[in-house]
Sequence to fold (99 residues):
Amino acid sequence: MIYRQWRGLCKPEYAEAYLEHLQNVTFPAIRKISGFSSASILRRRTGQGIEFLIVTQWSSIEAIREFAGTETETAVVPPSVQSMLVEYDQVVRHYEVVS
Fold:
């Protein structure tokens, strides 16, 4: 099992729109990928905006590759979402479950 972690800082006025994008566009699309297990959205308010931490769970790096392409550590952030963000991780982190 592999957890994929990505962080983005959203402009406060776009926080709800970004959340809706995740729930209505991103997650429905990745649920169709064989090997996708689950997704969590974590958020917190900071002085600069609303920080989101997105954690997805996958059965293998091959399943992640189906979502992210050959460069699995490159973040998948559509242009329409980029404009909602103050900053975001360009590179994601993958963690293997060991226990």
Remarks:
- The longest strand covers residues 36-45.
- The helical segments are 15-31, 61-68, 79-82.
- The chain has one domain: 2-96.
